[in-house]
Specification:
Elements: H1 20-27, E1 34-36, H2 42-52, E2 58-60, H3 67-73, E3 81-85, H4 92-105, H5 113-128, E4 129-132, E5 135-139, E6 155-161, E7 164-170
Length: about 170
């Protein structure tokens, strides 16, 4: 267990363009990092978030790392990171993941993608943030990242740099 806690959880209606009041509520809780998951609002979120706080790391799932986000956010997307997964259902670890879900829920999932995406997005963020008594947060370097997830479904981290997305960790 890496520690840490969720200090705020907010939701916004689809097609909300002004996210500043939501962002302000989250920032009032002094988070070490922010995770944002929305299929259509990541660009607006990043642009408004960076105006209110340019320093707190922002993470998301695959829906943040799309071309529309880069266009909508512009330079505000810089350094945002997204957890994502690659699924090859012939691999033993993917088969084990499917079996674990079947055992847990009593039936086979119709799709592994979102289950694996959610699991590994959160797992990567937990690995990325390491809390210790001397600092509020410390970002781990690429050399410290390992694939030690329960199901190990080929996670990767994408980072937005210079207006493009690049993989910074493929476990």
């Amino acid at each position: 267990s890496l520690g840490g806690s969720i200090v705020a959880s907010e939701s916004v209606p689809v097609n909300t363009s002004d996210l500043r009041s939501t962002i302000a509520r989250v920032l009032s809780k002094n988070p070490d990092a922010v995770f944002f998951s929305s299929a259509y609002q990541a660009g607006a979120f990043l642009r408004q978030f960076r105006t209110l706080n340019p320093n707190i790391p922002v993470y998301g799932n695959d829906t943040m790392c799309v071309a529309d986000t880069l266009t909508a956010a512009g330079p505000a997307a810089e350094n945002a990171r997204c957890g994502n997964v690659v699924l090859d259902e012939s691999r033993s670890e993917i088969k084990a993941f499917r079996q674990a879900l079947e055992n847990k829920f009593g039936k086979s999932p119709s799709s592994l993608f979102y289950a694996a995406l959610g699991y590994d997005s959160v797992s990567l963020i937990r690995k990325e943030l390491k809390l210790n008594s001397g600092a509020r947060r410390m970002l781990l370097g690429v050399e410290d990242r390992t694939s030690q997830g329960v199901f190990d479904v080929l996670p990767t981290v994408l980072e937005i740099k210079n207006g493009t997305m690049r993989s910074i960790a493929n476990h």
